[in-house]
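== Protein entry: sequence and backbone fold ==
=== Local backbone shapes as whole numbers ===
==== Amino acids and backbone structure tokens ====
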Amino acid sequence: MNAGAGVTIQMNDLKKEYKMGDMIIHALKGIDLTVRKGDFLAIMGSSGSGKSTLMNLIGCLDKATSGEYLLDGKSVISLNKNEYALIRNEKIGFVFQGFNLLNRTSAIENVQLPLIYNRKASESDHKEMAFEVLKLVGLQDRVYHEPHQLSGGQQQRVAIARALINNPSILLADEPTGNLDTATSNDIMKLFGNLNERNITLIIVTHEPDIAEYAKRTIYMNDGLIASEKTDTY
């Protein structure tokens, strides 16, 4: 099956199995999922439902056992490690719950880190590119601050800027508000909404229903399958 126009992600009967001793764990039991360019998708589910496994497959951090996964119309299931790494660097930005910033390193230096592997940008452009994405997330006045000089929300904004530096078509966020208070969480989700309005495809994993409300679509995982889906009708 070929992905149609505007389809960024197409998964058909995607399965993931893990071997633990003599046991086979069926983490994903046949996922059918279509994500179009500019979608804002939330993935919810209890622990062990398969949502993190699904996120890892979407982000090419892991390979499916069987099924079909088309990313921008290209099958990725049979690619090698180097090809997976190239996709992650060029097409996908990652935001994590723990920020994962380097200590004693300024915001602008943290943001520039993924550019080490970017062959398309010259080193002289790196600083300007980093400043532009920090400006995009509202941190143009904090570019030389180190993580310990920033609030939790500001650190997450640096992490988001770092995820955007290579101009990815997809932004994946795993529990991006898990370490933040309610007000800061809402600020971060509004930022994600603004980024989505710029036609960036956003996929977040969250266990918080109020955070999922910011998304246009929400899928609910249960026992390795998509149990249900809710679409914003506004």
Helices lie at 51-58, 81-91, 107-112, 123-136, 152-164, 182-197, 209-212.
